[in-house]
Amino acid sequence: MVILLFGSFSFAVPQAYGALGSQAPSFWDPNRTVEKPDLSTVRQIRFLTEDDFPPFNFQLPDGQLAGFNVDLARAICAELDVPCTIQRRNWDLLTSSLNDNSGDAVIASIAINTETRQQVDFTSPYFLTPGRFVFRRDSTLKDISPKALGDRPVAVVGGSRYEAFLTAFYPKLVRVNFETPALTRNALQTGRVQAVFGDAVTLSYWLNGQEAANCCEFRGGPYTDPRFFGDGVGIAVKKGNGALRRVLDYALARLARRGVFSELYFKYFPIGPF
């Protein structure tokens, strides 16, 4: 993890591996020796996810599950050489399915926070949701420091953690508040604002899609201050199931070290949030 200093505050950026001329995040220390846990008790892993959060998890026209989380689950099972199943559940039933033994692990981009930690145990984070600025490609403004941005109009979702971050560190900006992320993006495309600040994962998905029409690009960042953007997402297991949690942490670290995680990242995030 690299800590960058920016004015009066600092933020962490995951150490990145270069690939395809871009960067993929790594959330695991490459210098740390990861001891192989006892795998003898892991006969199979029943993963649970949901199907309405592309590109992380979604349903194909033929009904099959797909997405970054789904492929990551399959890679984990291949790394451990154990059979696994991946089943769909409604979002509000995911964690309760662990408690009634309907599944062993949930891989559905569940945020790690005080509330979710009371319900389940988590692996180490395998993804973060940073904040980032998006500008139109024809904008000549390259420096996104508070001084350079000055009092320019920037679209943000009102009342969000992204607005709170701008209020704290970009106090001179004219924050143009909207109710939804889609409205902030529309304001940028139509020239009502000079930039958007928001969820980098959602913005990455938009930039990769047809709706953006190659209009815009990331500049600066990513900002991952946990006070605003949380502690990331992890694979959830039933409270007290430390054995499976350690096995999953081992597999995730191995996938990162062997470059498998980076390959999956670029598959689903050609214009990545990092």
| Biggest sheet layout | 5 strands, mixed
> How many domains, as an integer?
2
Tell the overall outline.
elongated
Here the CATH topology of the largest domain equals: D-Maltodextrin-Binding Protein, domain 2
Number of strands: 17
The CATH superfamily of the largest domain is identified as Periplasmic binding protein-like II
- What is the CATH architecture annotation of the largest domain? 3-Layer(aba) Sandwich
Q: Which class of the largest domain in CATH terms?
A: Alpha Beta
How confident is the prediction overall: mean pLDDT? 89
Order of helices and strands: EEEEEEEEHEHEHEEHEHEHEHEHEHH
Poorly predicted parts: 1-21
The portion of residues forming beta strands comes to 25-35%
Structural class, by secondary structure, is alpha/beta
Using the CA coordinates, give the radius of gyration: 20 Å
Number of helices: 10
State the end-to-end distance.
13 Å
Helix content: 25-40%
Short structural description:
By secondary structure, the chain is α/β, with parallel strands linked by helices. The chain folds into 2 domains: 12-128 and 231-268, D-Maltodextrin-Binding Protein, domain 2; 131-229, D-Maltodextrin-Binding Protein, domain 2, CATH 3.40.190.10. Helix content is 30%, strand content 29%.
Characterize the structure shown.
The protein is an alpha/beta fold and 274 residues long. The chain has two domains: 12-128 and 231-268, Periplasmic binding protein-like II (D-Maltodextrin-Binding Protein, domain 2), CATH 3.40.190.10; 131-229, D-Maltodextrin-Binding Protein, domain 2, CATH 3.40.190. The protein has helices at residues 68-80, 94-99, 114-117, 146-149, 161-169, 181-189, 200-208, 226-229, 242-257, 260-268, and strands at 2-6, 9-13, 16-19, 22-25, 45-49, 52-53, 57-59, 65-66, 84-88, 105-111, 120-122, 131-136, 153-157, 174-178, 195-199, 216-223, 233-238. Strands 9-5-10-17-11 form a five-stranded mixed β-sheet. The longest helix is centred in the last third of the chain and has 16 residues, at 242-257. The two termini are 13 Å apart.
